[in-house]
Amino acid sequence: MLKLLPDWLKIGAGAALGALVTFAIYATLNALVWLPAAEKHGRDLEAAELTAATNKAIGELSNAADQARVRRRLCSERGGMYDFAKGICIEPEPPTDG
Q1: To which H or E segment does residue 76 belong?
Q2: pTM above threshold 0.85
Q3: Which residues, at least 6 apart from 19, have a Cβ–Cβ distance to it below 8 Å?
């Protein structure tokens, strides 16, 4: 059957099929690997920026009592537990994917 088709048609069909397979592979990699990693990286960068801005704002408060009060409130809002003896927030473990 293939002997009846001209060579230029076989080459064109092979190129089209190869392009389709290549597109399918890259689309699958993008959806399953690259995009989730990029989204996580973006969320991590945004969280770091927000934490830096929050710490800067806390540092600009007038006295230590205000700073401690804000730190305790932020800790509880994030789901952490404030250790009064050490003056630090113990953050919960982040959920793992999988």
Answers
A1: helix 64-77
A2: no
A3: none
